[in-house]
């Protein structure tokens, strides 16, 4: 889906998922590593406040990834 | 370490006024056995049923399968569950060989499956060939899913131990004694200095949300990879946490029989030096996957391993664990052979693993989980035939009005088990 949106619509896509090697294998271009398979975009173990911080940081990082020019598959680490 | 499995060959089942074995038949006092399980107040209903090879019977949805066993003279089994916390793998074990306890009841989670005792679906599962004591339970209202899973897991183990214990308390004679004996890694390497040293890495589902595996009754999820003597595996150290995809879950029965452990054992001292089994994790976080792969390698390197057999449990994200293990071992100069099933789509044309790596160059396939099969109606259904609509590999339209089903292979228990014990494979063409 990530590749098709980019290919057909020309919209840059940032993929947040946990298992980075699979994103590399399937050809995702902008990769933001998620937290864990059951909760990729947050961390409930940190409580509501900590969880919100994790979610906010992931989102801001994703915006950064989306606006960063790239020439190859790129992983945007924290 | 020496383990003796004293096997009574079971070739029949019947309800009777006491529980014992005679002439190859396991007789069961139904009321008493049900009462043992009904002691657990988490169950609203407990019912035993019997299913023998060749019968027109479907069991659905199945959670786990357990071989009835007990330590002779100890009346206990499965350390930490129905035996004191003690080391498994030595002494004498009574085995009701050919019999199995099958746990069944309203669905816990979608990754459960079915067993057909006859017809075209039967050859896909080893449990169409076992004499099955089916434990059907219903939980009390509002029991949380994880508590229901725990109750059912423990009930299956309890019944398996109970049946073997009652058999041991009455007159019995072993039809066969199977011996597993091997010294420690240092002794064996001194004995066979020229044989290649092989470790077996057994990957286990350890992902929470009812996807767990237990080692000495300990949840493997927060644990680290470790090393076991093969006898420990074959004597009740490993227990399934039930709710993994039906086709490639390692049931407790599979752990007790682990075919890779047995095959390596059979070649020990002849072709190879079998160093032991590394039970390891399939984590839900990337660092967990990297940590497990690194520690699997570390243990293998400490043993001086030349080669490794690595088996997966489940599919999807664990394919990454499989690839990491292949990469880490091969890059460290340890040859790795990987065993896994494939999810290649109903036409077999899709990429069959979710991940890939060039180091994964020695691969044994145990079949395509997405293959479609048609199974006819059975005269008798134990459990709930409508459950197929909720199971992985099933859908709303799977069950037809005449009772037949059109389903993916993955809904059949152990049809593509990745430690072996199935009849499927794939060939490179």
Shape of chain B: globular
Low-confidence residue ranges of chain A: none
The multimeric state of the shown protein is heterodimer
Total DSSP E strands of chain A: 3
Count of alpha and pi helical runs of chain B: 8
- Rounded Rg of chain B: 21 Å
Terminal-residue CA separation of chain A? 24 Å
Query: Percentage of helical residues of chain A?
Result: 40-55%
Gist of the model:
The complex is a heterodimer of chains A (78) and B (429). With 78 residues, chain A is an alpha/beta fold.
Walk me through this protein's architecture.
The complex is a heterodimer of chains A (78) and B (429). With 78 residues, chain A is an alpha/beta fold. Chain A has one domain (2-75). Helices cover 46% and strands 13% of the residues of chain A. Chain A has 3 helices and 3 strands. The longest helix of chain A is centred in the last third of the chain and has 21 residues, at 47-67. Chain A is globular. The model of chain A has no long low-confidence stretch (mean pLDDT 95). With 429 residues, chain B is an alpha/beta fold. In chain B, the strands form 6 sheets. In chain B, strands 5, 6, 9, 10, 11 and 22 form a 6-stranded mixed beta sheet that branches. A 5-stranded parallel beta sheet of chain B has the order 17-13-18-19-20, sandwiched between helices. In chain B, helix 8 links the parallel strand 18 and strand 19. In chain B, 54% of the residues are buried. The model of chain B has no long low-confidence stretch (mean pLDDT 95). Chains A and B meet through helix 2 of A and helix 8 of B.
């Amino acid at each position: 889906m990530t590749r098709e949106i980019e290919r057909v619509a020309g919209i840059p896509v940032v993929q947040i998922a946990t298992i980075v090697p699979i994103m590399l294998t399937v050809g995702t271009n902008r990769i933001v590593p998620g937290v864990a398979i059951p909760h990729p975009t947050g961390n409930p173990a940190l409580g509501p406040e900590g969880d919100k911080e994790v979610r906010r940081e992931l989102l801001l990082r994703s915006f950064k990834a989306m606006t960063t020019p790239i020439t190859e598959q790129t992983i945007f680490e924290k | 370490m020496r383990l003796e499995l004293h096997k009574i060959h079971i070739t029949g089942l019947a309800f009777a006024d006491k529980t014992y074995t005679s002439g190859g038949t396991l007789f069961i006092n139904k009321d008493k056995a049900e009462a043992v399980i009904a002691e657990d107040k988490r169950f609203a209903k407990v019912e035993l049923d019997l299913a023998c090879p060749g019968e027109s019977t479907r069991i659905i949805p199945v959670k786990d399968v357990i071989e009835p066993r007990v330590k002779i003279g100890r009346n206990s089994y499965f350390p930490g569950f129905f035996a004191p916390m003690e080391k498994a793998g030595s002494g004498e074990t009574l085995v009701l060989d050919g019999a199995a306890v099958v746990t069944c009841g309203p669905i816990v989670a979608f990754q459960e499956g079915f067993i057909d005792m006859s017809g075209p679906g039967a050859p896909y599962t080893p449990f169409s060939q076992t004499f099955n004591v089916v434990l059907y339970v219903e939980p009390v209202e509002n029991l949380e899913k994880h508590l229901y899973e725990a109750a059912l897991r423990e009930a299956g183990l309890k019944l398996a131990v109970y049946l073997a214990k009652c058999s041991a308390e009455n007159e019995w004679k072993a039809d066969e004694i199977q011996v597993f004996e091997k010294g420690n890694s240092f002794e064996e390497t001194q004995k066979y200095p020229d044989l290649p040293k092989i470790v077996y890495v057994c990957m286990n589902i350890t992902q929470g949300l009812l996807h767990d595996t237990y080692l000495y009754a300990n949840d493997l999820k927060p644990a680290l990879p470790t090393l076991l003597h093969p006898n420990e595996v074959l004597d009740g150290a490993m227990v399934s946490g039930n709710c993994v995809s039906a086709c490639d879950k390692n049931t407790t029965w599979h752990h007790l029989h682990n075919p890779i452990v047995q095959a390596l054992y059979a070649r020990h001292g002849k072709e190879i030096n079998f160093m032991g089994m590394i039970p390891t994790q399939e984590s839900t976080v990337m660092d967990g996957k990297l940590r497990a792969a690194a520690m699997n390698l570390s243990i293998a390197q400490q043993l001086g391993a030349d080669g490794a057999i690595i088996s997966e449990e489940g599919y999807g994200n664990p394919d990454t664990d499989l690839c990491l293990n292949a990469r880490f071992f091969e890059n460290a100069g340890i040859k790795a052979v990987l065993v896994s099933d494939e999810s290649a789509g109903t036409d077999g044309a899709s990429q069959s693993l979710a991940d890939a790596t060039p180091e994964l160059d020695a691969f044994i396939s145990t079949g395509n989980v997405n293959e479609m099969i048609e199974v006819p109606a059975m005269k008798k259904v134990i459990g709930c035939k409508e459950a197929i609509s909720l199971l992985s590999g099933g859908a709303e339209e799977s069950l037809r009005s005449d009772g037949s089903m059109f389903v993916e292979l993955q809904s059949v228990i152990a049809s593509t088990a990745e430690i072996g014990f199935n009849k499927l494979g794939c060939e490179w063409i």
